Every structure is written in structure tokens, then in C-alpha cells.
Amino acid sequence: MHQSGIRRSALVLALAGALGLPLAATPTSAQAQAQSERLYSIDLPAQPLNTALTALSRQTNTPIMAGGSRVAAHSAPAVSGRMTVQEALTRLLAGSGLSSAAAPGGGFAVTAPDQSPAVTTLAPVLVTGRQQLPDPYAGGQVARGGRVGLLGERDVMDTPFNMASYTSELIQNQQANSIADVLANDASVRTVNEGQGSVAGTGDEFQIRGFPVRNQDVSFNGLYGMLPLRTIAMDGVERVEVLKGPTALLNGMSPRGSVGGGINVVPKRAGDEPLTRLTATYQSDSRFGGMVDIGRRFGENNEFGIRFNGSYRDGDTAVQNQSNQMGTAIVGLDYRGDRLRVSLDAGHQTNNIDAPGDSGVLIFGDHLPVPRAPDASKGYSPDWGYSKSRDNYGVLRAEYDITPQLTVFGGVGYRRSNNRYLYADPIVVGENGELLMRPYYWPSWEQNVSSVWGARGNFNTGSVKHEVSLSYSTFEQRAGYYDYYIYGLSPSNLYDPADIPKPSTDGLSSSPPRTSLLKLPTIALADTLSFADDRVQLTAGVRYQTVKSTNYSYTTGQETSNYDKSAVTPAFGLVVKPWSDVSLYANYIEGLTAGPIAPAGTANAGEIFAPIKTKQIEAGVKVDFGSVTTTLGLFQIKQPSGLATVSGGVTRYDMGGEQRNRGVELNAFGELARGVRLLGGITYIQPTMTRTASPDTEGNSAVGVPRWMANIGMEWDPSFAPGLTLTARALSTSWQYQNLENTRRIPGWTRWDVGMRYATRAFDHPVTLRATVNNVFGKDYWSSASEGYLRLGSPRSVMLSASVDF
């Protein structure tokens, strides 16, 4: 920045300080120019002008200097839509005789013809505690940063990992029902089971960089095991954050040991502007619903906040004989003081499905080919099948600034889930889609308690800045289940499902005893060192993780197996910024999964192996073009696997196998031009099996991992129709092998989604109408062959909604 610019910025800061008014960080001249051209989603009711300017400043996080009797004497009209701050100011000031202009050093000044900008006062800019989320990037679909586990909130350009944070604006505009719907925008992620997008499923499973990520491993505000066990409704979600690759240092080991990446859900908080939003929804075939979203803040400085989200949806889905009833109630309370921040989130979710559609298809017999995908709108599920789940959860978190350089934090959460599942596994036994249906009944429950405690601080050693994080966390899970495979196989057909008899569950208990106990205590320490005016940032850390697991017989209650092992996982990350808008990054990080126990029949039967370490190296470049950000990264992930080998007539089980995924990712998001938004990318992976001890599988591709994945989403606001937005998205996935011998594979597929929305006002209230058609061409396809199961893609589905703000 030029010296004159520095002096002007210092003058503005000094003026604000003298007036006792808060001020957002003053941007550089380049940042100020980018900010002046950025489009925001603005929604301001008719109100006094000084109040409207304050609300505009808060909604856009832009300093706006104004004041005096001329401002206080005027009223502002209602302003809504996507526009720049300058355009919003022009509308607000219409007829007032006041004008606005860009202020030196950033922001805007509102003045009368006879008033100099140098003596203006400042409209308050919202400054919250350290829990404030990173701002949305240009286009509003992705945030500028997000939570990086142990390291806290980070800007994407200062993070040595590949990350994306999807905003509530995207969630609402795309009418996302689940995390799977949100992650359909990411080319590094595939939903193994496309259950909840348009077909009601019992739980989402993901694949990131070719490795599975279970729905149970999604964290809530950084805590594992707090969200509903099955599909997670989006009603109370502010953001969905994705970290790609192993995350053992950042998040600790997840309950199911997922290593492909980390997914974190950020809850909604009350904003400074009162919110009352009612939404009516429709989803084909005849599923109707309603949602309410209410937010208020109280106190002299809006210290106390409450946000309530409730919804109910019920009716038939786009699949024949299938229906889905879901109800949610979620409340978020928070307090934000000068030094103390506290939040409490509590929720309930009930999800009942008739004829759930997510069970994978198995193939019996190496001689059988992969069958063509059946009509997805008919499905193959027996109509007597059901899934019933109920979840209750609560999370309390707090942080306190001991000094401006040291913050301590803590949190504790609890969740209880109860589930019942009656279904029949489809098994392909013939070349023309002949099936045998294997009925089973699976009642289960799960009870989790999670906690985290720690401190973050910053200090300098000479010219080197340090940001240090220390945390200790615990996770305890008690669970129970019955796994009843009911005697009898019923014939059916993939393309013409038969009415198979409903199995009787008489005499089968629905209240299983405890069958497992899992404990995951862990401690971690990390330091980020910054040099050369923060242009070089080196992160180093280490985590000590313990895994304690005990299994019990559900018939006798006796212990059947016990696991108690520990592991140390280091990580390193480097960011080099040769220019302010370019970041070169690299990392080494590990993931953890509980090690296996050598099975019976091997010479070392009962041997307990240490937690499996999955190791990643990655390097790439991130470029912020002002309104579009791109990330290009190359990665390699190696995960050991167990296998039995025979030597000298002795069979021994060890961790000699390995899956090695090498890949490249290109992602882009932002605003290509005024009113044209881009979100998408492309990923290429080589998933190679090595050290398999068999010439038939050595060097083969891993099961269920596609080579190519591409997602391209576009939004366009046509200038000839203010308030209208047209959307289109394409998801494309290449073929993938169904078996390790690579003799069977499912074909690649491409799905198109289209939509539109219209923002207007009715009776002086903002109204938004939305329409989306997923899989618009009605393509039938196998979406995944993960773990050898064939998963059917979603059929064509129509979604409509209308939202009104009061």
C-alpha cells in the first residue's frame, strides 16, 4: 500500500477510535476495488435511513461512514436482490439529497453536498467475538474459509490443505435436503448411496479422494458423534465444511475411522437483524412440507441470541411405493460478550421411511456380469420394508479470552439414537436380473458423549509469529444391536420386482442390550509459524491417539473381543505466498483407523494390530482472481490393508497389503461476470492395489473408485428479468470396477440438474420462489460400486419451495 493510503487509513481508524465506534479491518486498495465490484444478497425492509445504513454495513461487512441530522431525518425504501454495495446505497439514498462515494482506504462515505467526507462519522460495522464465520466469497455459494479442526478458523488462502465451506445461501437456494445434496457440488466427493436427494435412504455414505467417509463420522461444530445417525436434515445448518484427505492431527480419529476427508456441520446462529421465515415445500411424487426459521437477538449490545428451526415433511417420493416422513426441531442459543462466548445447540429429528431405497445389490457368482441399471423410479425394494429412526442431541460450547493473545475453550455434547430397520438384501443370481431377496430385521441404538478442552494463543519470537493450539478431547460410544437374518430366500427380478412375503418379526426383540463400547481419548499440539510478513507459514503438529474398543455378545452379554492400542500421528503444512493472491501449499498428514484382529484359522489368531496409519502427501497452488478462486492440487494417499498369506504351509495374517490413490484436483468457485456464478471442478484418481500377494490382483484398480469425476454448476441472473436466476449443474463419473479382480465394472454416468428461482416482494415482504429438477433426463444408472455393492442412482425428481420473510 502507498504511504498516502496508509496515512488515510490511519486517519479513518483514529477518527473511529475517537468516536468510540467499532471498525472492520481496513482493506488494501486492491481488496477495496474487489469489494466495490462484488455482488451481495441484500434484503433491507423500509426503515429509517441511519438504521438501513447500519444493516447494509452488517450484511456486507463493509465500513460505511455516515451520520448527522441529514441522515437521521430521512427514511429509506425497501431494497432487496443481488447487487453491489454502491448500488444498494444509491437506492437507499434516492430522493434524500445525499450521495455516496468510495472512502479512502476502503468502504463508503455518505455525505451531503456541503459536507466533506473527512469529517463524517461512521455507521456501526458489526464486530462479533472470535466465533464469527469467514465471509462468503464472491457469488455467495462458498465461504472465504472455514474451520480447520485443531487450527481453528482459517482463510482458504492461508490453509495448507484443500478445503471448501458451502454456505447457507447455497443450501437454501439448491433446496438441499441432506449433506449429500450439498456435497453434490464437489468434484472430489461422491455419494456412495444417493438416498436422500430424491430417494429416501437410511443414511448417507460418501467417498472423498477414493476412500469412504461414513455419515457417522460427520462432526458438529468440531465434535464427533453429535448429529443424527442416519441422514442429517439441513434445517439448522449454516455451513457444510469439507477438508479433503486424512485429518488425524486436525480432528482426531473419527468413530468409524474414515480417512478420505473430514466433514463438519456449522449450526445456525441468530443474526443481528430479526428473522422470521416461513417456507412451504413440495417434492415429487407427493411429498409436502413446511419449515419455520426464527432468529432474534437481545440485550444492550445484542449479546444474547436465539435461533429456532422446525420442519415437517411427509408423502410419497419419486420412487414407486416409497414414502418419507421427517420432522425436526432445532434450537441454537448463544451469548457473545467482549471476552466470553457461549453456545448451546439442541435438536430432535424423526425420520420414518417406507420401502427405503438405499440397500446395495450384491452379485453371487464370478461368472455373472454387472446387470444394467433398472428403472430408478420403480426401484426393487419390498413395499413392506421400513426404516424408523429417532435422534436427540445437545452440544454446549464456550470460549474465554484470558488475554487478547490467549483463549481457552471447551465443549461437551450428547446424542441418543434409536433405530429399527426391516428390509431384504437383493442378490443377483442370474444374467437376466434374477434376484434372491434375503430378509432381515435390525433394531439398534447408539449413545454418544463427546468433549473437547484446550487453548489457543499467539506470540512472537523475534520476527517470527506463532499461533499455538493445544487440545484434549474424548469420545465415548455405547451401542447395541440385533442382527436378525430371517430364514428363507424369496425369488424376484431386478427389472420386474415380485411381491415377496413380509417376514414375521414376532418374538424378535426390538430392545437390544449393549454390544459395543468405544472410547477415543486424544491430545494434540500444533504451532503455525509465520515469517516474512505472513508470506511464509509453516504448520507442525502431533497427536497422541488411543483407541479402546470392547465388543459383547448380544445373547450372553459376555465380552467377545477387546482392543486397546495407541498411535502418534504427526503432520506438517506449508503455505508460501509469493503474491497476496497466490498461495503455494504442501502438506504431509495421516489418518487413523482401528487395526484389525487376526482371524481364527491363522497362525497368529487373536493378534491385535496397532491403529492403521493412512499417509498423505499433497502439493498445489491456490489463486484468488478477485471474484474467482481456483485450487490445483496433486496428492498421494497410501492405506495399509490386512491379508492372509501362506508360507511353508502356515497361514498368517498381517498388514502387508496397500491401496495407493494418486490424483489431481482442480476446483473453482466465484463470480465469472456480473450475475454469472461458477462452482465446480474435476478430479482424476489412479486407485492402485499393491502388495496383494496375488498375481491376479496385484496392480489392479481398487473397487468402487472412479478414475474421473467432474462437477460443473452455473447460475445466471438475466439482466432483462430482475430477481430471476437460472441454474444448471452436471455431475459426471467415469466407470469403476465392482470386484478386485477387475473383471466386472459399472459404466460411467452423467446427470443433469436444472432449476430457477425468483426473488420479489409481496405485501412489502421478501418472497423467494424456487424450482429444481434433479436428473432432468431421467437417466437410470448405478451410482457406485463401493465395497462391491451396486448402488442405484436417484430418479428424476422435482422440488418446489416458496419462502416468505416477515
Distance between the termini: 44 Å
> Shape, please?
globular
Biggest sheet features? 27 strands, mixed
Low-confidence stretches: 1-31, 116-130, 196-200
Q: Count the beta strands.
A: 49
How large, in whole angstroms, is the Cα Rg? Answer: 28 Å
User: Would you tell me the structural class of the helices and strands?
Assistant: mainly beta
Proportion of residues in β-strands: over 45%
Q: What's the total helix number?
A: 9
Percent of residues in helices:
under 10%
Mean pLDDT: 88
Protein name: TonB-dependent receptor
Family: Belongs to the TonB-dependent receptor family.
InterPro entries: Beta-barrel_TonB (IPR000531), Beta-barrel_TonB_sf (IPR036942), Plug_dom (IPR012910), Plug_dom_sf (IPR037066), Secretin/TonB_short_N (IPR011662), TAT_signal (IPR006311), TonB-dep_rcpt-like (IPR039426), TonB_rcpt_CS (IPR010917)
Keywords: Cell outer membrane, Ion transport, Iron, Iron transport, Membrane, Receptor, Signal, TonB box, Transmembrane, Transmembrane beta strand, Transport
Question: How would you describe what is shown here?
Answer:
This protein is mostly beta strands. The protein is 9% helix and 52% strand. The protein contains nine helices and 49 strands. The strands form nine sheets. The chain has a 27-stranded mixed beta sheet that branches. The protein has a five-stranded mixed beta sheet with strand order 11-17-18-15-16. A hairpin with a 7-residue loop joins strand 41 and strand 42. Helix 3 runs antiparallel to helix 5. It is globular. The N terminus is likely disordered. It is found in: Cell outer membrane. Belongs to the TonB-dependent receptor family.
